[in-house]
Amino acid sequence: MSNAVKLNNVQIESVVSLIQKVQSKPEVAKTNWKASVQWKGAFQSEAKVRDFAPVKSDEPTSLGGGDSAANPVEQLLGALGNCLAVGYAANATAAGIAIKDLRIELDGDLNLHTFLGLREGGNAGYEKIRAKVHLESDAPADKIAELHKKVIGTSPVGHTLSRPVPVSIELA
Amino acid sequence: MSNAVKLNNVQIESVVSLIQKVQSKPEVAKTNWKASVQWKGAFQSEAKVRDFAPVKSDEPTSLGGGDSAANPVEQLLGALGNCLAVGYAANATAAGIAIKDLRIELDGDLNLHTFLGLREGGNAGYEKIRAKVHLESDAPADKIAELHKKVIGTSPVGHTLSRPVPVSIELA
């Protein structure tokens, strides 16, 4: 019987239980997330989260790196895609929509002038980020449109990127 | 002799050569970065960048996931730390500063109300992100302070997070 509620293989009971917890105790929703990064020489570093194996980072040779891993701005796009995938899986499951396949292509435009120190005070970050969502499902188009709207309105990484976030960077 | 210019193990010639290219042909600085994400069922997915092995994503059990990898908001913090590491390595090398060790601790506050659909139109993203930089170097304090200021002013991921970026998310 427990398989019947595992639409999209999602443990929806855990999410429902968390929602109930937050409803009775709103402070449960205040979360803090952490990562730590260790520099490995040159443009290589590793990001560690909880007890998971560290994930490598490097730059392409064109940017002076050793080209051994995705670079930080590519990792950012990956984080957005992964966040959207969770959003579709969670909200589709809550809406009774079965997902057959889900693939997200992301890209972003970035002008290197500021990063390279060739202009002062400019924007070193992405100017524009695009995500193309390939969602296969037998659900009717209006249900999919509703799902899509919900995912966009509730995406933690999507909102972090589209809003200005106070970022404090301090020497310890 | 080539070791002499490889301070911090950085291939500074590649960066200098890129700067020269951009100075003579500004459009070289206009870059586009890509990633693609494949949903793997439940809250699991994989982000792929160029030809590198896919990097896994999942949610903790408290959020209904299988707890098999860092989640997207943790990945975002990792991307920021990796970006800062490149920034310190590049700018320290350009300034003739040797880095003995560099470690960055990151954390961020996120309220789950919007993500869980418990409030409409709210912010699902980070409210605040902090990075603590542990930099070991024999360089004088004023040189380190200057380096730090430069890194903050030129960080692609730092700027992406601290500014509002137009993010378009569309069903293909």
Explained architecture:
- The structure is a homodimer of 172-residue chains.
- In chain A, helix 2 crosses helix 3.
- The model of chain A has no long low-confidence stretch (mean pLDDT 94).
- Chain A is built from four helices and six strands.
- Chain A has helices spanning 12-24, 72-94, 141-153, 156-162; strands spanning 30-39, 45-48, 55-57, 101-111, 126-136, 167-171.
- Chain A has a three-stranded antiparallel sheet with strand order 1-2-3, with no helix packed on it. In chain A, strands 4-5 form a two-stranded antiparallel ribbon.
- The N and C termini of chain A lie far apart (53 Å).
- With 172 residues, chain A is an alpha+beta fold.
- Helix content of chain A is 33%, strand content 26%.
- Chain A has two domains: 33-69; 72-172, 2-Layer Sandwich (GMP Synthetase, Chain A, domain 3), CATH 3.30.300.20.
- In chain A, 47% of the residues are buried.
- The interface between A and B is large, with 125 and 125 residues.
- Strand 4 of chain A pairs antiparallel with strand 1 of chain B.
